[in-house]
Amino acid sequence: MRRTCRKLFVALCLCLSSRLMAQDIHLSQFYETPILRNPALIGLFNGDYRVQAVYRNQWNSVTIPYQTGALSGELKFPVGRGEDFLTTGAQFTYDRAGTAKLQAVQILPAINYHKSLSEVKNMFLSVGFMGGFVQRQFDATKLTFNNQYTNGRYDPTIASGEEGRLALRGYGYWDAGAGISFNSTIGEDVNYYIGAAMFHFNRPRVSFYKDNSITMDPKYTFNAGITIPMEDRLKLIAQYNEIHEGAYAEYNGGAILGYMLYNEGLESTRGIYGGVFVRWGDAVIPTMRLDMDKYEISMTYDCNISKLKTASQSFGGFELALVFKGFLNSRNSTLDAVHCPRF
Q: If pLDDT is split at 50, 70 and 90, which confidence band does 4 have?
């Protein structure tokens, strides 16, 4: 009985902290979903196109697991005869949680313009926008309410008392965000970027009740990253992301060390990486990645360090990401460009 109560308590805490405070989904591999992170970060890669897929399974050891899937695509091409670039993209996400199968589906197109600031080095100021539709729903037949219990026993034939208030099992809203970023090089080999973005500036209404007066707080993100060559075959990649949304704040950062394969030096597109990220106060996240030219595969696992670690036994969430990128065989390819936004 105690074990059952503990699981129910933890499930309630998870629902309150992850859904009501943060409002948005979050991924440990935040750098693999740039549109959700900052639309001004799309296009910062070596290639003309990139497709990324991320799958996350969280809290499987405690309650019904939270499952999140994300799929995004980016297409980058030069503008005119200068060194400016334009990137278009789209983000699709699916998130489902809890017994009532509370789920959200997002379709978010995005565009980012990279303005070259130097003719002698890689230096770009980028401004990006994203906007699209979000749909949320749940299975009301899976919910139970206090009014449906008699002498401690649940009776599904008793009215819940929420029929007059609960107007919708699903609703949709339009969402929008914008961001800015700057990326450049230090010397010849060190690449870095910084950025900031604001989401939900249209303050969409989010409620399953008739009194739909609840609005989503604006979300602010701050982003940074740097790639540092260490030796002939070693490079260090560090990433940082900070989120503020209402009373909720999240700080996530870390680094991976890469070893380039096949004796091709630091420009090799084949390598193996390992490292650690930390979501402050919540999880330590071991990370592994394998680059195979056009393909990348990376895995992370959240080791829970929050107040829930007793119930979760420090287990958190498994996450898998797949990336496919390359150059187009066309005049609009960035392959022969002297400078190009990349990271």
A: very low
Radius of gyration of the chain (CA): 22
Q: Indicate the residue type of 103.
A: Q
Q: Rounded to an integer, what distance in angstroms lies between the CA atom of residue 334 and that of residue 155?
A: 65
Q: How far is CA 338 from the centre of its chain?
A: 31
At residue 33, does pLDDT exceed 70? Answer: yes
Q: Specify the 3-state DSSP secondary structure of 253.
A: strand
**pLDDT confidence of residue 205:** 85
Q: Distance (Å, rounded) from C-alpha 215 to C-alpha 212?
A: 8
Alpha-carbon span 304 to 283, nearest angstrom: 4
Q: What is the structure's pLDDT at 308?
A: 61
Interior angle at CA 178, CA 192 and CA 30, nearest 5: 50
236 DSSP β-pair partners: 228, 257
Q: Is 35:72 a contact under the CB 8 Å cutoff?
A: yes
